[in-house]
Design brief:
2% strand, single chain, 290 residues, MetI-like fold
Amino acid sequence: MATLHTRSAARVMMTPSVLLLFAWMIVPLAMTIYFSTLNYNLLSPGAHDFIGLLNYEYFVTDPAFLNSLIVTLLLVGGALIITVVGGIALALLLDQPIFGQGIVRMLVLAPFFVMPTVAALIWKHMFMNPVNGLLAHLFKFVGLDPLTWLETVPLFSIVIIVAWQWLPFATLILLTALQSLDEEQKEAAEMDGAGAVSKFIYIILPHLARAITVVILIETIFLLSAFAEILVTTNGGPGTATTNLTYLVYSQIVLSQDVGGASAGGIIAVILANIVAIFVMRAVGKNLEA
C-alpha cells in the first residue's frame, strides 16, 4: 500500500511532466486567443491594432462559415454511417472460421496505418481518376461513362476517402467486442429456432452497442478536424463544396494572410468541437451505464 511519503514523491516526480504538458497546451491556445483580438494581417506588417471581437463577428457572418458547418456535419455523419455499418459487416465476416484468417485480418487493418495524405492521393489517382482510374475502367466495362468523382460528387468522394481510412479502426474495435460474445447465447437462440437475422438484431447488435458508441466517440473527435484529404484532392472545391471548418480556417491564413481572422476561426472551431464532443460523450456515458 502506498504511504504518504511515496505518494508525495510520486507527485514531485510527475510535476515537471504535468507542467510541461500544461504549457504545451495552454501557450498556443493563449497566443491564438490573443491574435484573434488583433487586426493582424501578414500583408500589413507592423499594424497589429486591437479590435476586440470583430474577427469573431466577421468569421461567423461570413457566408462560407455556415456552408463549412454543413460540410463538416455531412462529412462526419457520412463517414460514421459507412464505418459503423461497414465495420459491423466486416467484423461479422472476419469472425467466421476461414482459411488464412490471420492474414485476412492483417490486410483489412492495413489501411489504418497509411498516412491520410498518401491514402487520399491513392484514391485520387488510382481509383477516382476519370481516365486511368480503376473505377473508370469498371464503368467502361459495364458500358457507362466514367465519372469525374472529385468534380461531380466531391463531398461524397471525400466521405468515401475518409471512411476508407477509419473503416479498419471500426472493424478492429467491433471484431474485438464480437469475439467476447458468449457462444452459448447463440447456440441457445439456434435451439429456439432463431434465424440469422433474429440473432443479429436481438443478440449480436445489443452486445456491440458499447463498442459502437466508442467508435462513434473517437471517430467524431478526429473527423471534425479532417484536413489532409481535402487539401490534396479538392482544395476545398469545386467552389466551397468540400470546405469544412478546418479548411476554412486554413484558407483564411493561407489565401487571405489574415492571422487574426484565422485565429478567431480556430477558437470557434475548438468551441464547436468541444460542444459536439460533450454531447457525444454524454450519449456514450448513458449507453455504457445502461
